[in-house]
Amino acid sequence: MSNRTIAIIGASGKIGSAFSKGLAKSNYRLLLFDYDTKNLKLLAEEIKRSSPSADVEYMNCATEASWEADIIIPDIPAGGEKELAKKIEPFTNRKIVMRFLSANETETLQSLLPGASVAKIFNPAGAVGLNDFPSEPAELQIMTDDVETGEICSEILRVAGYHPVILKNSYNNLNIYQSKINTMETTKWSIDAIHSEIHFKVRHLLVSWVTGSFKNFDATVETEGEDISTAKVRFTADINSISTNNDQRDAHLKTNDFFDAENHPQLIFQSDSFEKTGVENYKLKGTLTIRGISKKIILNVEYGGITKDPWGNTRTGFSLTGKINRKDFGVNFSMVSETGGILLGEDVNINANVEFVKQVAVAAKAA
User: Fold this and answer.
1) 95 secondary structure, DSSP code
2) Distance (Å, whole) CA 304 – CA 197
């Protein structure tokens, strides 16, 4: 098995980088693929420094990638299975795909790649890849009907620093696993408003910016365990707390020309998905409601990680950026200056830095 080639797709992600580092000291030939070539290069350089004898190459998924590997470990977002299958389908004869599945995925690569032996890898603890080298090997469950595939996957997982457990690919075992997922504790994170800020800015006369913020706001995040990739986010802001450092302008913003605070006192955001796009980068998709009008928006998120404060509280933080068109939400106020210029731009830039504190776990979901 020492001459096998393993392709790790999305290698700069948490799962991908963990397995890349874990397998670096093995005799496997590693092909690291990602769209994020910058972080991919840094990962390859880190592996070479720690394991000079490692046989490692890295390639851009879009332009340079070769998919002719014996084994593929894809760390891709849910919904990316079809795109991946199209690329590797021509090489699926006897190919093993070690597919990591999360609770919200509804399709597997096996149905898309009937010519391959797809092993489904589950993690009961919900923390695959969060720690590159766990102090105690995390248990990873392998579901496959093929004995040889199971043995190969077991060896790879052991070399990467995990404890493999082979399950037969049966409905009973799937139901046992699903029960574990469904009863996983949901962790609630509450915003620390003192260490958080929500800002927006809009063009004024197309030559400068007016910047504002909300003084009163609230937000919660719910995750499965501490797995940030499962985050569900809800945010509200009190329109009457809007501040642009000008009382007259603030009063105008609360009128029907803008936010109509009397009839719509809150701005509300509810997330739909939290999609990983890089090492610490995500796309937060959800519904924003202003003046009673709801529209889908996408925010770019930089994840700051998880830490403990001096008092033992677990904290996490994010930086968010995005852009909306105010007229999409019925904020249609417009005025022309004496020189014919537009007084107020339509695009509104959003910028937020938020910190959350982990609360006690809420009741587990029913199986």
Assistant:
1) -
2) 15
Residue 16 lies in a domain: yes
Under the banding of pLDDT at 50, 70 and 90, the label for residue 285 is: very high
pLDDT for residue 276: 86
What total number of domains does the chain contain?
A: 2
Residues 213 and 161 in one domain: no
Average pLDDT over residues 138-143: 80
Q: Does the residue 37 lie in any domain?
A: yes
Tokens of 271: 């997330």
Model-wide pTM > 0.85: no
CB 70 within 8 A of CB 96: yes
DSSP string, 43-89: HHHHHHHH-TT-EEEEEETTTT-----SEEEE---TT-HHHHHHHHG
E strands of the chain, at which residues? 5-9, 29-34, 55-60, 71-74, 96-100, 117-122, 139-143, 163-167, 186-191, 197-204, 208-214, 217-224, 227-238, 242-243, 266-276, 281-290, 293-308, 314-325, 344-358
**Which is more confident, 37 or 238?**
238
Q: Which domain does 275 fall in, by range?
A: 186-358
Q: Are residues 123 and 242 in the same domain?
A: no
